[in-house]
Design brief:
globular; mainly beta; Porin; 3 helices; two-stranded antiparallel ribbon; 6% helix
């Protein structure tokens, strides 16, 4: 089998003999950080979460997520990091999609070995650098994640969020960082692996461009007896993202296409800092599905206020339109009722408090 057993043999293979570090030093090098993210759905005017009784499963619900990040230096070349996510019932695994049970999971758990000449080998579970939006709430320009981020979350099916499991090598050459990865198949296909090839270009401190692809087996994309789309797998995904900052203005966005399911995904985000404590964000998402599916569009407006050094209050309204009604006919004549295809028509309003440490 080609399935990766990630950590043990690779860690043993790292040449650490010359850099032995006792346990006391490892503890002294320990750094901890994290955050608590509380989101309240003030209004759910969409059809996204309505049940059979036309009642919203999201409206007037609190979601709470906590994260504890721990990092330590094992020796001058080797670091270890673990990010633990803790969520309560109705927590948004993919904001604003909801989970109704408590959970705890690793967002990241990896060993990083630094070679000479700006080369690194990362082994374990780690964030996927492809995509415009980051993983955690304090790093977002709004409350909810975009549709493009949700595609990555869906396709990296064995892990929460846009995260990968495997080995990733990176080498920095001037303004360019080249990245290559050998990963567990992101669609969890048995005896399959995924490959990652990407490049990050930083011509200046204000401009950052990342582009690349992750290969994957698209499976058979079969349907069950009820006509529901079962193997919701996009296969190989190509992604490009750009971030540009100038004084108080940030402009960014992304482009995504895939072997199956997603013909084109586009995202554009603008953030402007009115003061040191107050900024505003506008974001638009567009996804064109394959086959008979039409467009899926969402518009997001958000205000972000920093009340103190580690305390933030945010508000967002998100309007969604999707012509892809559940049960629409696919190109092969079968019915598709997969909820990931529906962003839901209507609008949602979110309020958020973030505390960091």
């Amino acid at each position: 089998m080609k399935k990766l057993t990630i950590l043990a043999p690779l860690v043993l293979a790292i040449p650490t003999t010359a850099y032995s570090t006792d346990a006391k030093t490892v503890v002294q090098n320990l750094k901890a950080s994290g955050f608590v993210d509380v989101v309240y759905v003030l209004s759910d005017g969409s059809d996204e979460f309505k049940n059979a009784d036309d009642k919203s499963e999201a409206d007037k619900k609190f979601s709470v997520k906590g994260e504890l990040d721990v990092e330590t230096e094992l020796n001058p070349r080797t670091t270890l990091r673990m990010d633990l996510d803790l969520t309560t019932g109705y927590s948004p695994d993919t904001n604003p999609l909801l989970s109704t049970s408590d959970s705890a999971s690793f967002e990241q758990a990896f060993v990083n070995y630094a070679f000479e000449q700006n080369m690194n080998l990362k082994m374990g579970v780690f964030n996927n650098r492809l995509g415009f939006e980051r993983e955690d709430a304090p790093e977002l320009y709004q409350i909810s994640h975009s549709q493009l981020w949700a595609i990555w979350d869906e396709q990296t099916s064995t892990l929460n969020g846009n995260n990968l499991a495997g080995v990733e090598f990176s080498a920095n050459v001037g303004m360019v960082t080249l990245i290559a990865g050998l990963l567990n198949d992101i669609n969890a296909e048995p005896e399959k692996i995924s490959f990652k090839l990407a490049a990050e270009v930083k011509p200046s401190e204000s401009l950052d461009i990342v582009a690349g692809l992750i290969s994957a087996d698209s499976g058979e994309n079969t349907h069950n007896a009820a006509g529901t789309f079962v193997d919701d797998q996009a296969g190989t995904i190509i992604d490009a993202a750009i971030t540009w900052k100038w004084n108080q203005l940030m402009l960014g966005g992304g482009l995504l296409t895939a072997e199956e399911m997603y013909d084109l995904g586009l995202q554009a985000t603008a953030n402007y800092a009115f003061t040191d404590n107050l900024s505003g964000t506008a974001r638009i998402d567009y996804v064109k599905y394959e086959g008979d599916y039409d467009n899926s569009t969402s518009l997001t407006l958000a205000a972000l206020f920093s009340a103190a050094e580690n305390l933030y209050f945010n508000a967002e309204i998100r309007a969604m339109q999707n012509d892809n009604a559940a049960g629409a006919t696919k190109a092969d004549g079968t019915s598709d009722e997969n909820p990931y295809r529906k962003t839901g028509d209507g609008s949602m309003v979110f309020l958020e408090v973030i505390g960091t440490f």
